[in-house]
Write a structure and sequence with these properties.
With 177 residues, the protein is α/β, with parallel strands linked by helices. It has a single domain (5-176), classed as Collagenase (Catalytic Domain) (3-Layer(aba) Sandwich). It contains five helices and eight strands. It starts with a strand and ends with a helix. The model has no long low-confidence stretch (mean pLDDT 92).
Length: 177
């Protein structure tokens, strides 16, 4: 590995197996060290009662205090997050920046009247986390239908994507690393 690092910052409870999977994904795809550090922020101050959601921009600002030159911090959470111009988001990250967030709230089947499927939930979350980490490393949205960097508005979009970068995005990522 090298001196770059991605920190997973769980805000709320996550099973250690899930955290290990996410950490392994990040290390493999971005050829860097990663670690998991407990979230020490109170995200309740970012709750918007009118929307019944949490402000992703505010959370990212707070999380950014833990980032540095060679460190990227990705806050992960189980709450419904938003940015002012969208109804909801799965995640958000600063392009070539140091901070991002990802939430599994809207990835749950039961939110859409479907049967609970924890394996599918984790697969979707892995895709969101890798997608946001891709933005942190300078990748923009891709038009390849199965690329992890394709924009996802709906969970069905996530389900159609692979958990991998297309050849073009992989090449760009390798040049950026």
């Amino acid at each position: 590995m090298n001196n770059r690092k991605i920190i997973l910052h769980p805000c709320g409870y996550f099973d250690s197996k899930v955290l290990d999977i996410l950490r392994d994904d990040l290390e493999q795809e971005f050829n860097c060290d990663s670690e998991i550090t407990a979230c020490n922020i109170d995200i309740s101050s970012y709750y918007n009662p009118a929307r019944r959601q949490y402000d992703a921009n505010g959370i990212m600002q707070n999380i950014s205090l833990n980032a540095g030159d060679k460190v990227k911090v990705l806050g992960i959470m189980r709450v419904d997050i938003f940015v002012p111009i969208l109804t909801f988001i799965f995640g958000q990250a600063e392009l070539s920046g140091s901070t991002g967030v990802a939430s599994l709230y809207r990835l749950r089947n039961e939110l859409y009247g479907l049967e609970i499927n924890n394996d599918l939930l984790i697969e979707r979350f892995r895709k969101v986390v890798l997608h946001e980490a891709g933005h942190l490393h300078g990748l923009i949205h891709c038009h390849n239908q199965v690329c992890i960097m394709r924009s996802s508005t709906y969970v069905e979009d996530l389900d159609q994507k692979e958990r991998a970068f297309c050849l073009s995005c992989r090449s760009k990522l390798n040049s950026l690393l």
